[in-house]
Design goal:
Mean pLDDT: 95
Helix content: 40-55%
Distance between the termini: 77 Å
Radius of gyration: 33 Å
Largest sheet: 3 strands, antiparallel
Main location: cytoplasm
Pfam families: Anticodon_2 (PF19269), tRNA-synt_1c (PF00749)
Strand order of the largest sheet: 3-4-7
Low-confidence stretches: none
Family: Belongs to the class-I aminoacyl-tRNA synthetase family. Glutamate--tRNA ligase type 1 subfamily.
Number of domains: 4
Structural class: mainly alpha
InterPro entries: aa-tRNA-synth_I_cd-bd, aa-tRNA-synth_I_codon-bd_sub2, aa-tRNA-synth_I_CS, aa_tRNA-synth_I_cd-bd_sf, Glu-tRNA-ligase_bac/mito, Glu/Gln-tRNA-synth, Glu/Gln-tRNA-synth_Ib_cat-dom, Glu_tRNA_lig_a-bdl
Function: Catalyzes the attachment of glutamate to tRNA(Glu) in a two-step reaction: glutamate is first activated by ATP to form Glu-AMP and then transferred to the acceptor end of tRNA(Glu).
Length: 503
């Protein structure tokens, strides 16, 4: 790379950050870190009618939670600031004027009613109305009007826009780092609006100007922007600026594999599509977030990295640091990537095992009121025994409640399977073994009880199944000797007595 790598994530603050936006931010971040570059956050809020209060703050919090904070952006290392387009609006007009002076753009005074008439007229004839080379001389703009007429309209403050003048009969050669070479016939391009009648630039002009002024070297964005690539190339050329390298990421598809994953799909299908919970200020509706649903940021990052990117190996587990070292845009797929809610759970289960027991214990204690007065070190020991069977901290209570409270009843199926004619006699003898075990350690209990079973030629299941049932209320859970040691001698005897009383 000849010049420093500078990439940007440029969301619009129109609501919560969708999972697709998080992946775009992640790929930008990884590319920047791989090449020791800079990851920039720019807020593209030129469309103030769609601005949603709190959305920008949400975006920043989401990036920080994922562990992919920006290097430059609003209120942070503002080397090329400001980083909100609404605060840069005064600088865009001079660039629109520059394009008019160079003949690459023109004033258009067509009213909304006139354009609507032409669209409907074309539709009635089975055609599509495109404002470009084939009809612009017949429409109300500075190409069809005299210089005097144009100046009169401008002096009268008549509503107008600035349109880009697309060339005729040319072939554009574009390059995408993921999709390769692309050829575009300019005759099919429309003359896009660059500057609106309200004095604000459109996305296209503001985007190009900001990328240039912020010295962006690589534009990594979603494939929905591929149709805009021709215009953006032409704008760079019209200004005489160096063109950054472009890479358009594949869509994230619904779990069915058909269609783009939308913000509504999560509610329909029962999984989050936002990194953090979002409350709609107008309706009060709450959309679920991965953080609040118990996912670890490491799981989300690992999962998203493999949505459309292939490391070229069978490896699936990647820390952010490893990803930053191995990520290459050339290994991003062209085709859409299917979103698999079960796969991100698989990742979460893996990262559950990587968490410190002390941290999980704190989260567990905070999540359940029954644990308020329980010693945190005891909870930590419980977590160590059960976390391998958990995907979320919210699974802990179901997996471990018997460590804190005696089971209120016994699972019917387990009861029928475990209780035999000789169970009362064996459990009575077992109580005697437990009571006389002086050390009451896991090792001594194991040795004492297993020796008794073996010496008396008793089937292990005849003792261990009703014992587990007494301790847990079901035939599940960690090793029974761990449970006995944790709950103590008196509680163990009490629970076996409760089982005996039920027979």
């Amino acid at each position: 790379m000849n010049k420093p790598v500078r990439v940007r994530f440029a969301p619009s603050p129109t609501g919560p950050l969708h999972i697709g936006g998080v992946r775009t931010a992640l790929f930008n971040y990884l590319f920047a870190k791989k090449h020791k570059g800079t990851f920039v956050l720019r807020i593209e809020d030129t469309d103030q009618t769609r601005y949603v209060a709190g959305a920008e703050d949400y975006i920043v919090k989401a990036l920080n939670w994922c562990g992919i904070p920006f290097d430059e952006g609003p209120n942070k290392n503002e080397k090329f600031g400001p980083y909100r387009q609404s605060e840069r609006k005064d600088l865009y007009k001079k660039y629109a004027d520059q394009l008019i002076e160079s003949g690459h753009a023109y004033y258009a005074f067509d009213t909304a009613e006139t354009l609507d008439f032409h669209r409907k007229d074309h539709e009635a004839k089975g055609k599509t109305f495109i404002y470009n080379w084939h009809n612009r001389q017949k429409l109300d703009n500075s190409l069809s009007l005299s210089a005097e007429a144009v100046q009169q309209k401008l002096d009268a403050n008549e509503d107008h826009v600035v349109r880009f003048k697309s060339p005729q009969d040319e072939t554009l050669h574009l390059t995408d780092m993921i999709r390769g070479d692309i050829e575009i016939d300019t005759n099919i391009l429309d003359d896009k609006v660059l500057f609106k009648s309200d004095g604000m630039p459109t996305y296209h002009l503001a985007n190009i100007v900001d990328d240039h002024l912020m010295q962006i070297s690589h534009v990594i964005r979603g494939e929905e922007w591929v149709p805009s690539l021709a215009l953006h190339y032409q704008l760079y050329d019209a200004f005489g600026w160096d063109i950054p390298q472009f890479a358009h990421l594949p869509l994230i598809l619904k779990p069915t594999g058909k269609g783009k994953l939308s913000k509504r799909d999560g509610d329909k299908m029962g999984f989050p599509v936002f990194p953090l919970e979002w409350t709609d200020a107008e309706t009060g509706a709450v959309s679920a977030g991965y953080k609040e649903n118990g996912y670890f940021p490491e799981a989300m990052v690992n999962f998203l990295a493999l949505l459309g990117w292939n490391p070229g190996t069978e490896q699936e587990i990647f820390t952010l640091e490893i990803l930053s070292n191995v990520f290459e845009l050339e290994r991003v797929n062209k085709g859409g990537a299917r979103f698999d809610p079960d796969k991100i759970k698989w990742f979460n289960h893996h990262y559950m095992q990587e968490q410190h027991d002390a941290d999980l214990a704190k989260a567990y204690k905070a999540s359940h009121k029954a644990l308020a007065d329980i010693d945190i070190q005891y909870i930590e020991l419980v977590v160590a025994l059960i976390k391998e069977r958990a995907t979320f901290v919210s699974d802990f209570w179901e997996l471990s409640s018997f460590f804190f409270v005696a089971p209120k009843d016994f699972d019917d199926k387990a009861y029928k399977k475990a209780i035999k004619d000789d169970t009362p006699e064996l459990m009575t003898q077992l109580i005697q073994k437990v009571t006389t075990n002086a050390e009451f350690t896991i090792e001594s209990l194991q040795e004492d009880i297993k020796s008794w079973i073996t010496d008396n030629n008793i089937g292990f299941g005849k003792v261990m199944m009703p014992l587990r049932l007494a301790l847990v209320g079901a035939l599940q859970g960690p090793d029974v000797f761990d449970i006995m040691f944790m709950i103590g001698k008196a509680e163990t005897v009490k629970r076996i007595d409760t089982l005996l009383a039920s027979i």
